[in-house]
Amino acid sequence: VSFLRRSKFEEGGMMEVSASNNVSLREFGCEQNLLSRPDGSASFVQGDTSVMAGVYGPAEVKVSKEIYDRATLEVLLQPKVGPAGVREQSQEQCVRETCEAALLLSLHPRSSLTLILQVLHDDGSLLSCCLNAACMALMDAGLSMSCLFCGVTCAIGADGDIIADPTAAQEKESRALMTFAIDSTERRVMMSSTKGSFSVQELQECVAVSQKASEKVFQFYRDSVRRRYSKNL
Amino acid sequence: MPTDTKRVRGPDVSQSPVLLGYKPAAVLASRGPREDGRQRDQVDVRPVFVRCGLVSQAKGSAYIEAGNTKLISCVYGPRETDRKDETDMKSGRLTTDVRFAPFSCPERVPWIQGSQDKDLSLMLHESLQPAVCLQRYPRSQIDVSVMVLENSGSALAHAVTCASLALADAGIEMYDLVLGCSLQQVGSSYVVDPSYLEENGWRCNSSESRGGLTVAFLPSLNQISGLQSDGEMSEETLTAGVRTCIEGCYKLYPVIQKVLTKAVRRAAPPST
Amino acid sequence: MAAGFKTAEPLEYHRSFLKENCRPDGRELSEFRSTTLNIGSISTADGSALVKLGNTTIICGIKAELTNPTVDAPGKGYIVPNVDLPPLCSSRFRPGPPGEQAQAASQFIADIIESSEVIKKEDLCIGRGKLCWVLYCDIMCLDYDGNILDACVVALLAALKTTQLPEVTINKETSAPEVNFEKKHKLNIHRHPVSVSFCIFDDSILIVDPTAEEESLSTARLTVVMDEEDQLCSLHKPGGTPLSGEKLQECIKRATARKGEIHKLIEKVIKSMKTAQ
Fold it and tell me: Which GO terms describe its molecular function (chain B) (predicted)?
């Protein structure tokens, strides 16, 4: 992880998301195109949570997985330690179906896309970090998308207050935990995965907080891509 | 130990409470009437409840209930074969899969099962194959799967009957139905269509020679397609046992025929 | 002619029905298929239930075993749910280890048990740090015609409600567990979650209780799980096309109505079982 940190500081890649509008997120960091083998790659850091993503494709597809009118997307989620289990598989499904909705897969019929997510460190809001890393990697791979998406995790504390982008400790203390994927065009919910029980009111508040937070994340996307290309020119 | 990463995992070891409780009269009487009131030394099979075509997704399906033994069987295909390399192009391939539901036996059956279900799958395959006109289905595959929902003895015998009924329901061309019947020999006497306790209880007190026998029988051709026996049996008792099992199959035959005609009528009502 | 149209252009076929606010099987958009429940049909299980939702058939069997609690949670037992989609239930599944869909369903059920606290894990503890129950909740699909999650939750809840565990005491002298099969007691069910699934067609049309065909043609799926106190236990939407707030509200409203129906059904079936005995 250290080389990641270093390069980010050199570039001044870390940027703080300000805590206005009562939604505060941790420090975000992102670097694209840092791996040479994949067609697109990105690392995404939210506080101490860090995920690396790589995209391969469009490439040849196995006959058994071929879909005649669109590309086949596969998502692999590797935990920090140990083999992937049932939980990872279910998160893979969430990431895959979100990506499938955003990507214009019909542009690449009968081909394969593979997205690999490697968890480098988990300090809460892991699924949202995975989604953000996936989106940046897909962008880096130059794949056509109908919209961008970002992941936001909200925790409802024991006293009912909503914390956006919680740390692992905050997650543990929380009564309920929700992760949403928000699309960039209309700020609607693409993916939702929740834990714990909550009222309808609380759900709506969390969706609103996530939508607000998504603006910041998308602004961060824009800034980090702009910075990258301004350097290259 | 390889861990199962594709399922929700529980504790590494756990014990069924049955093993800790007192034994409920484990000694099985080898004389007198049987526990469920059936007659010993007679072809006294349990009454069966049979239905065809319960599973909407399958080409053909059958459900059989004999006493507390409950099985469901589905047939898919004929469809393109998975393994193109090793198939005989002139005839089709029959695959069988027998599985026990985790809650089907008094003790929980783990998801990853040992050799038992593989053995049963193989025996089912051997029993069914001679009855299916596989040469009619070149380059294709017919999948038969059987799920044992509750095992109260004679699972293999009923699996054979159930699977052949599902094949017939699927409209797969066959020479004949295949019926299964099993028998448990206890010393000089025998029990037909044994229950789970009668099948497995003999492990406790092995004073007498015991053995089990399952016969798969083609009733209208009067041929045996599968025979499986374990334990200790003399040649005489074995041949007598086979004859008894055949008799048991004939008892089952009219019931199965009736169910099948009913299913066919429902699928294609006679034009008036 | 209609059959040919259905096979050649399944999406157009469905659209032509949805345009008229109905579905190929004659249902309205917010109508469930008929739900039937059968409990206690498996005598080898400690609790069991068979649910039919239209053609979809799910069976759930509960087996309780004894084990040691973990060091981290000495006062808690285990609940181990697994969903299996065997090749028997549909031609889309192949033999072998569970695929992505089965695993995602297992995780979904595990999350619901965790989130709703159907059963408190503390209730499964017999001797703190020494002995506890592990409840294996094995859910199996026998006929796959869409919307297995809703059927799984009903089957699980009904099976848990009928589960009876023998009394276990720890002998003070030998510290060995003793099981008394004469004395059986029911599990304490704290909450009754009910799941309601939807599909989104063409990014906008919402239909409830989708069949297998509707599921595969839709652009997104959504499952809402709600308990008797109108608390949500899960809002599961594994991706797909985005959903607006109003549509979400619609889903929650439908779930509120559905949960009452399911609670009534379970109560009715359990009652009829008692009178039959």
Answer: RNA binding
